[in-house]
Specification:
Helix content: 55-70%
Largest sheet: 2 strands, antiparallel
Distance between the termini: 35 Å
Radius of gyration: 28 Å
Bound molecules: arginine
CATH class of the largest domain: Mainly Alpha
CATH architecture of the largest domain: Up-down Bundle
Number of domains: 3
Mean pLDDT: 95
Number of strands: 10
Shape: elongated
Strand order of the largest sheet: 1-2
Order of helices and strands: EEEEHHHHHHEEHEHEHHEHHEHHHHHH
Amino acid sequence: MAVSHARGRTQKVKRTADGQKTIVGKIHPDVLAFTVGKDPVLDLELAVWDCLGTAAHVTMLSRMRVKPAVLGTDERNRVVAALVGVMREVKDGRFTITDADQDVHLAVERRLTERLGELGRKVHTGRSRNDQVAVDIRLHVRDQLLGMAGEVAALAEGLVRLGRRHVKVPMVGRTHLQPAMPSSVGLWATAYAETLLDDLLLLEAAYTYNDRCPLGSAAGYGVPLPVDRGLTARLLGFSSPHHNVFHASNARGKNEAMTLAACGQIMLSLSRLAEDVILFSMPEFGYFVLPPELCTGSSIMPQKYNPDVLELIRAKAATVLGYGTAVNTILKALPGGYNRDLQETKELYMEGLRVTRASLRIMTLMAGALAVRPGRLRAGFTPGVFATDRALGLVAGGMPFRDAYHYVRTHLDELEAADPDQAIALKTHEGGTAGLDFDGYRARVGDVRRWVRGRRARSQKAFSALLGVAFDAVR
Ligand code: ARG
């Protein structure tokens, strides 16, 4: 007995000697189960987007100038009302995808046909599952990237706050992990905030890449019908259609790779931040203390408070980078046009987004709760940390730098009395320990939030107009 998994429930699939009946013919049940893979579960995440894509497609069909009309306005309205019903089923967890459906696209068509009879059998006119899945994924990715951008903004804001609170707390700056030059907790924390804000450049690029509509490309070669591709793009709030229909089809997988590249860079930033916190909260350093409720204990050693979440973020960075590599490798020698290999990229991009967003949220908790110990940070200063500052002091008195360098190198014992607080107050140039632009950081975080709000409002407006009901209510 073959088994399919819908929302974690298992259900039995009927087997016959000549195959399992599906909407597109009879298929051997083992072949069906193998090719369907995890789609019945993964595609639940695409279901609302599939309904929206279908609503746009049937709206376009109803306005298409052909005789006889493919769909009348009244028929279009009935299909859209049924789609709203399906979206409610999805929202309430009543919508399921079976192995016989294969994926969300045929499951939605089945539900429409169950609800509307003959009319449901018309909706697939002039489209393919290839442009359907492509549009679903783009809508899903756009939505996820906006959520992720908001989470990056929240973490950057938390790190800027941490930096501002401790802007005057000295911290040893290191290269090769060896003590190097005077730095501050303010410089350290805001550097990671700025890294993450820069990572959003890639996220925005991924968003832009996903902001073009593939509908009308059908199987990848267009259709002999006067489809209005600009209209479906507008109805779904896309900036435009992908122009070349073959390119629209080949962009599947690329979208996911771009998305995972953005996730990968964010995870890299989080991983380095995690590593710093793990290191500097070791008792031997004691610069930072993780709040006990964010640590885990040991089953045998009663004294333990372990930074497991940071270790997991460090490891998950490798996992997400691996997902990106997997997608790129699937694409590498793939011939042009749709190939089933592409289905395999679905779980990878979905997991990449899920893991990255979860890591951002947990790191935001960390940043808000990290305790800073100024005494331990000051005690970390060894005389050598002031050597470069001292050489530059001699330069200010007229000595050539190389002479000053050699003088200090041979008189390191004279550096004893330097004051770290004074040292960090002296770097007043842009971006130095005493030259950090906190207003600039606040403005950048604000820009991100405005960008997210603007994009969300645009989609929300388009989706609500298309469905004739508030999108939020059915999502
Ligand atoms: N579940 C399929 C996927 O994710 C949908 C597209 C199927 N298209 C096809 N030509 N078999 O790729």
